[in-house]
Design brief:
2 copies of one chain form a homodimer. By secondary structure, chain A is mainly alpha-helical. Helix content of chain A is 71%, strand content 3%. Chain A binds a DNA duplex (30 and 30 nucleotides) through residues 4-6, 15-18, 20-21, 24, 36-39, 61-63.
Chain lengths: 131, 131
DNA sequence: ATAAACCTTCACGTTAACTCTAAGTCAACC
DNA sequence: GGTTGACTTAGAGTTAACGTGAAGGTTTAT
């Protein structure tokens, strides 16, 4: 099966602009063309894009994704390096999530502070207004 | 107690530029000045900055922080709105973390795939090399 | 008195990730 | 043959957030 850039754009939530951009930047291998130069994405290309989106969604930069995809293109002797890169990336993302959680605790604390202040203030306003 | 901009910069990990910038942008109330115009940060200002950093660390934009701090400056009748804003922000951050975790699962899966491929490849290379 | 630390204003820088423009090609239909 | 519309290219422009830098002047500390 082959797909036009429009179809790929719809399936991946990447704009056609972005797809050409990724190809130009070397994130994707050069896409097969029809005799008249029109891109024909293969299922293999779709898998690459799936992986790219996965990395992108976890905040990997275009530059790093490029490095990773270049390893992919070099064949199986880079499999170990790829595993290492992914594991490192995973660690970084996990660290980021942990940091977020730590900061979130502070926000939660602030919410308690403001909530307590609010209740105090509200009760102050209502003083002697009941019965 | 009062602090110079330098001291505050060191305590908060914000540059002096950033401190002036935040004040200009209205994230901070106008800071008290010495007769000659030099900023003297109070403990209250430090608390504001603490809150600002807290929001900033969880990814709140400068614009939103400004909105929040303006509410703070308006006094206790905005306490409820402030609580709501913080809770909403917290929800957004939590959602973001959840999304990250979802994406991370995919990365983990990819790692398994590559690891399996790598082991297969490595074993293939070593075929007949033992005994 | 001299050097560090502070002040203001305004323009400019940085990074990332596109996105748009202009000019052109190609295939199909009328 | 002409028009439409989807595609191509290279390269410039955009957006957004977040400051940073430089110039030029004042104040404070030793």
């Amino acid at each position: 099966m082959h797909y036009s850039i429009r179809q790929v754009s719809e399936q991946t939530d990447l704009s056609e602009h972005a797809l050409r951009f990724y190809e130009k930047e070397g994130l994707l291998p050069p896409i097969e063309r029809s005799p008249s130069g029109i891109r024909r994405y293969s299922d293999e290309d779709m898998e690459c894009l799936n992986l790219i989106c996965c990395l992108k969604n976890t905040g990997m930069s275009i530059r790093q994704i490029k490095t990773f995809m270049e390893l992919c293109a070099k064949g199986p002797e880079t499999l170990k390096a790829r595993c290492e890169m992914l594991r490192e990336h995973k660690g970084a993302v996990e660290a980021q999530i942990e940091e977020m959680n730590r900061h979130l605790i502070k926000v939660t604390h602030k919410i308690s502070c403001f909530t307590a202040q609010y209740e105090e203030y509200r009760d102050g306003c209502n003083k002697g207004m009941s019965d």
